[in-house]
Amino acid sequence: MSALKYWVWLSSIGVAPAKAKELLSHLGSVENIYYAGRADYLDIAGIKPADVEKLMCKDFEKTNAILASCDELGCRVLALQDSEYPDRLRNIYDSPLVLYLRGKLPLVDDEPVVGVVGTRKCTPYGITVAENVSYGMSKSGIIVSTGLARGVDTAAIRGALRGGSSVIGVIGAGVDVVYPPENKSIYDDVASAGAIISEYPPGTQPLPHHFPARNRIISGVSLGVAVIEAPKRSGALITASRALEQGRDVFSLPGNVDAAACAGSNALLREGAIAFMSEKDIIDEYIDLYPDKITLPDKIETKNSFDNTSKVDYIDLGNLLEKLDGDERSIVESIGLKSLHCEEIMCDTGFPAQKVLACLTMLELGGYVLRDKLGKWEITSELYGG
User: Fold this and answer.
1) Does the structure show a pLDDT above 70 at 318?
2) Most buried pick, 13, 92, 279, 345, via CB within 10 A?
C-alpha cells in the first residue's frame, strides 16, 4: 500500500500536526503510527486520550474518498516525506502533514519568497501599496506568497501576477473551493502562474479557524513577511507572530498613527519590525543572498488597471506644477532637480510617510517621477527634455 494513503489518513483524523510529528519522532514512520496500538500511543508524552481515540480509528473510507476526489480534480498531494515538499516548511515545528496542490509549486527552498499580508478591510492606499510593492518584488524575481483573501491579499496577488514571477496562494479551504467567490479568475491565474496550496482536502469549506492555521504556511514558505495595514486584531498579525516564531523577517508599512487599519502594523514597528517604504527596501534585504535570482531594474514601472499608460509628453516644470494638486505639487517642488529619499521628502515637506508614499505612487503611475538605483526619487528626464 502506498505510503501516501497513511499520510492522508493521519492528516485527516484530527490529530494536530505538532503531535503527529511527535508520533513520527517516536515511532519512525507513518506506517508504524497506523499499525501501533493504544499502549504505544499512550507511551508518548503529549499524546492525550482524545488523540489516542482518533488514532485508533483505522478506517480508510475517508482517506479513499479524499484520494479519489484528488484524482478527479487533478489535484496533487505532497506528503511531509516527499522530496518536493519544501524543507523551509518542513522545518517548522507544526508542518502540515500533507499539502494539496493545484498548479506547480516553485522550488521554494531555492527561491526568494516573501509573504504579503494585511487586513481585508484595507484602505484604497493599502490596496495601491500592496499591488505596487508585490508587482515590484515579482518584477525583480521575488516570489510572492499570500492568502488570497479579500483586501490586501487580493491586491498583492494581482500585482505579483503582473510582475511575471511565480506566485503562491495559501488558502484555508480545499483547493477546489474558491473563497471569496469573486476571486475565481484570480484562483485560475495563480494556478497557471504558480500554485495554490492547502492542508485541507478538496471540498473543505473555509471555516473561521482554518485561516489562523493557514497563516503559518504563508510565513513557513517565506523568507520574510510584509504586513500592509493591520488593525489591532488581525490575521496578518498572527502571520507576523508565526513568522517571528519561525525565524523569518517581519516588515511593516508605516501608517497614520490615528488610523485604526494601521494600529497593529504600526505596533509591529515599535516592536522591531523592519520598516519599508517601497519594494526596494524588501529587495535590498535579499538581493545579496540571491544574486542569481533577484535583479533590480533601473526603474520598476507599476501598472494598475486605472493607469494612463500613454507616454507623458515633454513639458516644463512650471507647466507640470500647474497640473498637480497641492500635495503632489509640493512633493515635485521638493524634488526639483535633485534625487531624494522618501525620508528627505518627508522632512522637506513636513508630510507624514503615508501621504508622501501615496503622492509618489500617483506621480509614478502618471510618469512624473521614478526611483533610481539607490532608491531615490527624481523627476523623469522626459519632463525636462532629457
Assistant:
1) no
2) 279
